[in-house]
Each structure stands twice: as C-alpha cells, then as structure tokens.
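Field: sequence (string)
Field: structure_tokens (string)

Example rows 1 and 2, in order.
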Amino acid sequence: MLPGLIAVMTYLAVLSAASGLAVYNVTQGWSTDLAQSMTVQIVHQDRDERERQTEAVLELLHRTPGIVSAESLTDNDLIALLEPWLGSGNVSDDLPIPALINITISSEIRFDSRALGASIIQIAPNATLDDHQQWMGRLVSLSKALESAAATAVLLIVMATAIIVVFATSARLAAHRETVDIIHLMGAEDLMIAREFRHHFMILGFKGAAIGFLIGLVTLYAISSLASDLGAGFLPRLALTGTQTILMLSMPFLIAVLAMLTAWVTVLRNLAQTI
C-alpha cells in the first residue's frame, strides 16, 4: 500500500505547490502593472464640463515628467467595462458614466502621486487620482496569505509522507526480523542491511510519486483548460517560470530521496536499539 499512499501525498503536494507558485506569479505581475499605472476619474453630470476637465487633465499629464502615456477611455471602452456587470445592451446613453484616464508612469523615475493629485484637483475639481496603493496592499497581503497556506500544506504533506515511510519501514523490518538476525549472525553490518531497505523504499517511493505526479499534471491541465474556456480576461493565466517548472518536475525524485533517507535512518535506529 505504500506506493498508493505516496501517490496520494504527491498528488496533493503537486496541487498545493502549483497553486502557490501560480498565485505568486500572477500577483507579482499584477503588482508590477499596478505600480506603473494610475487612473484619473472625473465625475460630473454635465457632459461638456466633464469633457473640458478631461482635456485639461490630459494636457497637464502630457507636460508632467515621468509620465510615459496618458489616454482617455472612449465611450465604447467604458461601455465594454460595464457590460459584464450590467449585461450587454443595458448601458443606456443617459447613464452618468465618469470619464477615465489611464496613466502609465516610468519605472526609472521616482514619482510623487500626491503632488500630481493636488495639481489635477486645481484644474479639475471633480477629478480624483487613484494610484492603486490601497489595492496593491490588499493584493500583496492576500497573495502572501495564500502562498503561506500553500507552503504549509506542502510541508505538512512532506512530514506525513515521512511518517508513513517510517511506519512502513518499521513494519517491514519487524516482519523480517528473523532474517535480519540471521544475517547479523553471519557478519552483516547495520549499514549493509540499511542499504537494502534504502534501495527498496527508494523504488517504492519513486513509483508512488511518479503516479501521483502524473495524475496531478492531468488535474492541473484540466483546470487550466476549464479556466481558458471562461475567457482570457476573466481569470489570469496560470503559468510557471523555467526554474519553477524544473522544481515541479523534480518532485517525484525528491520524494523518492525522502523515502530513501527516511527508510535508511529508520532501519539504522531500529537496529541500534536492538543491539
């Protein structure tokens, strides 16, 4: 039953590790994008006044050092943003939609968003500048919480796997106690006996880990396919870097090594206690 138990543990470890790494990569990308962007929102009932303030803000932004680009969203862009929430065709012309300006700032220049916000308010009293700092703080906190939960899950799975191997090794050693005693009498050393157990449990560990790993990959592929069917903009793309992919692919070998070392130490301790 040991390969089956290790397969289950490996499967859970694959899902936990992949989830944690994917969350880290996605939030890192979001944080980078948000750190280099800001948004100006202009709310006014009168359309002409709203457009006047928008033009004034755009003129100020184009003159401000450190701003790479500043673009006002068109009515079609704003309607496209609202339709997922209000439904297609439900955005009427009389709906008071605020003007939005997307700003991209340079990553090489230290930017003072408070000073820019004060300058914008002077020329456009109905405008507000959002530098996404509050959203970024919440995003980072959520990301770290999810990453910590995934790391804790992987650690607990590793500990549970080691405990399973300890019990399996002790049970196998007890079942072959008479044979081990005879080999001892024939002059076999503890290291020689431990090597045989080490090799055996390494093979069992790798078999179980390989099975669990393959099932985990199939599950991740299925989840990724279902997420892509929902649309590219609805869920972020879950992708791993090259180093992370290598780490994931090495998981069966790492679990096999864990099983080998655990069996090795368990046999040596059991034999030492019987002498």
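Row 2 begins here:
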Amino acid sequence: MKNRIFSRLFCLLLIPVLLVTAGCSSSGSSSESSQSKQPIELSAFMDAMLAADNTLPEMDRYSSEDEEAETFYSMVCGLEYDKVDGYQYACSVNFKLADEISVTRLKSVNDAAAAEESIRQHLLVRQGQYENYAPEQVPRVKKAVVFTHGVYVVLIVSDQAAAVKQAFENLIG
C-alpha cells in the first residue's frame, strides 16, 4: 500500500517536470523549424547573382510576382507552374546574346529533377535558335550551368558562371 501511494505521489510530482521539459523542447524545435522554413527572398538571389558578373549585358527581369508570371516562366521551364513556389529569371535585352540566369524555388524537392531536365531541354532549343542567327553564342549555351540545391533549380548562362554560382551558394549557406 505504501509503495502504491509513493508511486502515485512520485508520478504527480513528475508530471509538472515533464510538462515543463516538453514545453521547452517543443518551443525550441518549432522556432528552429520556422527559421529553417523561412526562405530567402528570390530577388536577393537574383540581385547577388547578377552582381557577381560585371560582364553581363543589360538584362530583362521576370518573376513570379509579375502579372504574367506563368507565361514568363514557360520561357525557361516547362514544368507545371503549380509546382513552382516562386522564381526569378533574367535574360539579355539583346536577343543576340545568350546570357540568362534563373532561380526557381519549387514547392517540393521531388520535382527538382523534372525541372532541371526541362531547363536542359530549354537550353537545347536555345542552342538551335542561336545556330541560326548568332552562332558565336552556341558555345556559351553549351557551357551553361544547371544545378539543383534542395528545392532550388538554377540556370546560369554567363561568362562568369562560376562566380554567379558562388553568389548563389553564399546566400544559401
């Protein structure tokens, strides 16, 4: 009987300790997860990446914030737009120059391979276009850098592609 009373008393004393401990750990983990879920503004990626190459020509910029966002996105990637969380795209104002940079944030990492493949198809089309009217740009398109990093898919056609990629990596950490 004494053991049973002692066990109940012990449990009653232990409950507040467990509640405080659980409260501390859950609040800590929720703040960590909310911090890790706050994505970097895509415009910050694009600003940094464009600044990393001082040889870029004047660039037009398009983004998921534009009124015709889905149409503009289809210029670089054929992935279903409902899988895209946001994007930034810049291309040379002069259509005879191949320079272009794109950063796409997907809703799911599961779509990254399909998005990357679609961008590679875009590059093949661009290469065919340049063969006809600006053949000197073909080698630049062939050297394009396309990569994924989690939910991000990046395209870089630039003479300073390594510096542009590094600017992305510096922001993503």
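free_text_note (row 2): Residues 1-36 have pLDDT under 50 and may be disordered.
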